[in-house]
Amino acid sequence: MTYDQAKARGILEQSIRKEAAAKNRPADLIDIALEKVVEAGLELLGFSTFDKMASKIRTEVNASICTGIHDRMSAAQRAWLMRLLEDRDSDGTTLFNRLKKPAKGPTWSHFKNLTKRLEWLDELGDIDAWMDGVAAGKVTDFAGEADAADASELWDFVPVKRIALVAALTHKARMRVRDDLTTMFCKRVATKIQKAKAELEEIRLAEREIVEALIGNYRTVLKHIDEGGPAQ
Questions:
Q1: What pTM was estimated for this model as a whole?
Q2: Which of 24, 33, 157, 211 lies 20 to 30 Å from 42, alpha-carbon distance?
Q3: pLDDT band with cut points at 50, 70 and 90 for residue 139
Q4: What is the 3-state secondary structure (H, E, C) of the chain?
Q5: Would you state the torsion angle of the CA atoms of residues 20, 24, 26, 27, taken in this order, to the nearest 10 degrees?
Q6: Residue 68 confidence (pLDDT) above 90
Q7: Which of 157, 132, 133 shows the shortest CA–CA distance to 145?
Q8: What is the per-residue pLDDT for 34?
Q9: If you average pLDDT over residues 143-161, what whole number do you get?
Q10: In the prediction, which pLDDT does 196 show?
């Protein structure tokens, strides 16, 4: 092992900054940085150095990502998202809470409600463009952070980060609604198919009874009019 703190710091910063674009957990960033320093044959720095640098760089990278999301949105879209934290739904909760609601059972009324929710989200336009270039893991982490908070807590964040977190949750909510609609549709169709199969089986049994009755009647007739025939 070679003792070269400057070189080790350079590798440490470079690897953390690269990985922080896709990963969010400090432990993951530190693990990768440790591997890179060891691969370079350098003596390890103190753990506190790894920890502080991972926290600092992750904050910088996340701030840059949030700024990118914020800037890819129009002023009208940002205003729409902020209204989610203020406007109330019919149940008295904020519209922000509507983004978190899971799908219910595969009934026709629930299917129609999900369709309306998707139309409501599609009013914003191309939501996918907001997350252009952002790693899926980062979007998931941002959405999870927003999902874990309530509307009042989000007001404690700086405006850029607040908008980015709500945007990530909105993006995930639309994906989830589409998945739920597809799943619900498949379940509804499967239920219809199962019901149709049961009805078809009932029809088949009823038709078989009719055929058997007709055959029995026909045999009885033949016995009376064809004494030497096969019906005897």
A1: 0.72
A2: 24
A3: very high
A4: CECCHHHHHHHHHHHHHHHCCCCCCHHHHHHHHHHHHHHCCECCCCHHHHHHHHHHHHHHHHHHHHHHHHHCCCHHHHHHHHHHCCCECCCCCEHHHHCCCCCCCCCHHHHHHHHHHHHHHHCCCCHHHHHCCCCHHHHHHHHHHHHHCCHHHHCCCCHHHHHHHHHHHHHHHHHHHHHHHHHHHHHHHHHHHHHHHHHHHHHHHHHHHHHHHHHHHHHHHHHHHCCCCCCC
A5: -110
A6: yes
A7: 157
A8: 85
A9: 90
A10: 94
DSSP string, 150-166: -HHHHTTS-HHHHHHHH
Closest by CA to 142, choosing from 176, 177, 166, 175, is 166
Say which amino acid occupies 166: V
Query: Could you read off the pLDDT of 192-220 as tens digits, one per residue?
Result: 999 999 999 999 999 999 999 998 888 88
User: Does pLDDT of 90 surpass 80?
Assistant: no
Which region, left, alpha or beta, applies to residue 229 given φ > 0 means left and ψ of -120 to 50 means alpha? beta
Handedness of CA 103, 104, 107, 109 (dihedral sign): negative
**Distance between CA 52 and CA 66 in Å, rounded?**
21
Distance of CA 12 to the CA centre of its chain: 33
Which DSSP symbol is given to 106? S
As beta bridge partners, residue 88 has 94
Rounded to whole angstroms, how far apart are CA atoms 219 and 199?
30
CA angle 109, 172, 91 (to 5 degrees): 45
Q: What radius of gyration do the chain's Cα atoms show?
A: 32
CB-count exposure of residue 52 (10 Å: 0-12, 13-18, 19+): exposed
